[in-house]
Design a protein that fits this description.
heterodimer, A: about 375 residues, alpha+beta, ten-stranded mixed β-sheet, two-stranded antiparallel sheet, B: alpha/beta, Rossmann fold, six-stranded mixed β-sheet, 7 helices
């Protein structure tokens, strides 16, 4: 019977109900999107790092796992020295990379070595880098920028000819020749990062210990350690901004639900008096208000999921460089946060309704 | 105090405390008793304290001083929770403005009273009563689609669905035309005469009291006058 009354109350004022549902939906959507974008970018970055196929990564002596690289501080000669010194190393290669803004990086590579380390690269069209101003882009970048093999793109204030479109998930979205990058950036003989592939990946820890003895000031990581450290650092750095946005979303949901339920209770003062005259207890009245809130929440959460998935699809279509990952765990937390904030928001209206004097309520117009 | 009465009121006072420490006495020592199955009408002008008496006997507000027993319950020392339970099981209300829940149908308005009292039984006798009230074909309509007389008859059905020992009616015909007034009063009279329902009706209409054959008490300035009429 209470559920029937709750349904009737909610449909009696459809605009107020729709606004409350939207507030909860926006709250859930904001939570899912901010976490989804953060996790999506991290996941995509990790996927591309793993796609390199390296077991060990060596970074400049001044860097850390979380830092993005925009300089080249490692001597290229070190690469040759390592390959000669450590027979455990199967392939050694280095990259020079810089950022282009808009979450894009351009990477200078020794293409043959890179392809060998990555155990092949799938070409959708075209072939390897040959000339000085050749560029290879991945399928996502090509789709986003609408470029095809043979087109010219401007990178670092120079025109490059696209010679291939490759599958995504291998290090970078834009590749140029290592020598060209070093020349354009003034990084002659220097690299941003070294990648080592071992004959036996299980020997990574022992090999790292040996390399560290030779290069004590360089941060040297097993690929999985680097990725997990970088993920932990990035999550820690983004936690504050995520929490602020979640806080804003929760505040919006809380205030709208509280205001909606408060006006609903005020409007139904007389009805509450009628229920009380029939012997409805404070708990009974509170249950009605709380169930209305819960019903609004559940519908709002469902719409929040739909909005979040719609936004994810829209972002993937219009901004393919931004990856969005909607995690089931955060779908649960988003719903939990929305329910708790809404129920807390409806506590005051519910208490006010439960404590109304029946005579005053019955006299209310 | 006579203990075979279903309503016993002795020396009842009610003082409302307004803002600024102002005290307004509404009842100044009311004595009243009603036996089970009796139809009592209380007549009096506005401000005579009729509604305050109605609210106290119905457990909607506590008395200031005095003794009030309703269906065997002493209201004087009752907590809010206990008065709520009294309203749930022992008293049915009929109001001047019908007070049906606008979002529910007539049937649901009756059903909610059953739900609140925890009454899950289907009462065959109650179905006959709906027929007696002449509303069985209007049960699926919402209050706004019912006439005033129909709304009040739904309110009567709601008030007695849990078979409370006492039915309190506050100006039950105050919002009705003469034809509907007569129909509602006839219903109350039938409930009293045929089903033995104890009814306490507040009205300022002496004719209504006479029509129902009620024992009539007169109130003025918060007191019941000595003179009674039948």
């Amino acid at each position: 019977m209470i559920n029937k009354m709750v349904a009737r109350n909610l449909t009696h004022r459809p605009i107020r109900t729709v606004l409350s549902v939207l507030a909860v939906a926006v709250e859930v959507t904001m939570i899912l999107m901010i976490v989804g974008i953060s996790e999506g970018l991290l996941s995509e970055s990790q996927r591309r790092s793993r796609g390199v196929g390296a077991d060990i990564v060596i970074r400049p002596s001044t860097s850390s796992a979380a830092q993005s690289l925009g300089t080249a501080d490692i001597s290229q000669k070190l690469l040759e020295r390592l390959a000669e010194t450590f027979p455990e190393i199967k392939i050694a290669t280095g990259t020079a990379l810089t950022t282009l803004g808009n979450l894009q990086t351009i990477t200078g590579v020794d293409w043959e070595r890179f392809v060998e380390m990555a155990e092949g690269v799938h070409y959708f069209d075209g072939g390897p880098l040959k000339d000085r101003y050749d560029a290879i882009v991945d399928e996502v970048y090509a789709r986003y920028k609408k470029v095809s093999v043979g087109d010219t793109i401007n990178l670092l204030n120079h025109d490059f000819r696209v010679v291939a479109i490759v599958e995504s998930g291998k290090m970078s979205r834009i590749f140029i020749k290592l020598e060209t990058m070093q020349e354009l950036m003034g990084w002659h003989g220097r690299l941003s990062q070294l990648y080592l592939k071992l004959h036996n990946p299980a020997a990574a820890t022992a090999t790292i210990a040996k390399i560290k003895a030779l290069l004590p000031s360089y941060p040297i990581y097993a690929m999985e350690d680097l990725l997990s450290q970088a993920a932990a650092n990035l999550r820690s750095m983004s936690a504050q901004s995520i929490n602020v946005i979640i806080g804003i979303a929760v505040t919006i949901g809380f205030l709208v639900v509280m205001l909606s339920m408060y006006t609903s209770v005020l409007e139904r003062t007389r009805e509450i008096g009628i229920l009380k005259s029939m012997g409805a207890s404070k708990t009974y009245i509170t249950r009605i208000v709380m169930r209305e809130t819960l019903a609004i929440c559940i519908v709002g959460i469902v719409f929040g999921y739909l909005f979040a998935y719609s936004a994810k699809v829209a972002i993937e279509i219009f901004f393919p460089l931004i990856a969005v990952l909607i995690l089931p765990s955060w779908m649960f937390w988003g719903a939990f946060i929305a329910i708790v904030s809404s129920l807390v928001g409806s506590l005051y209206p519910a208490t006010k309704a439960a404590q109304q004097d029946p005579i005053e309520a019955l006299a209310y117009d | 105090m006579v203990h075979d009465s279903i309503i016993e009121v002795e020396g009842l006072t009610k003082v409302y405390r307004m803002g600024g420490g102002v005290e307004v006495p509404a009842l100044r020592g009311v004595d009243l008793s009603a036996k089970a199955g009796e139809f009592v009408a209380i007549l009096g002008p506005s401000g005579s304290g009729k509604s305050s008496l109605f609210h106290i006997i119905g457990g909607l507000t506590p008395p200031s001083t005095g003794c009030v027993r309703v269906a065997g319950h002493d209201l004087t020392s009752m907590t809010d929770r206990e008065r709520t339970a009294l309203r749930r099981h022992s008293v049915g209300f009929i109001f001047q403005r019908f007070n049906l829940l606008p979002t529910l149908s007539a049937a649901e308005n009756i059903e909610i009273a059953k739900h609140i009292s925890g009454n899950r039984q289907t009462d065959a006798r109650f179905k006959n009563l709906l027929s007696l009230l002449g509303i069985e074909h209007r049960l699926h309509h919402k209050p706004h689609a019912l006439s005033g007389g129909e709304q009040q008859r739904v309110a009567i059905a709601r008030a007695i669905v849990n078979r409370p020992p006492i039915l309190l009616a506050d100006e039950p015909t105050g919002n009705l035309d003469s034809q509907n007034s007569k129909a509602v009063l006839s219903t109350l009279k039938t409930l009293n005469e045929e089903l033995g329902q104890t009814i306490l009706m507040i009205t300022h209409n002496a004719e209504a009291a006479t029509f129902c054959g009620a024992r009539t008490l007169h109130m003025l300035d918060g007191r019941i006058l000595a003179k009674e009429s039948q």
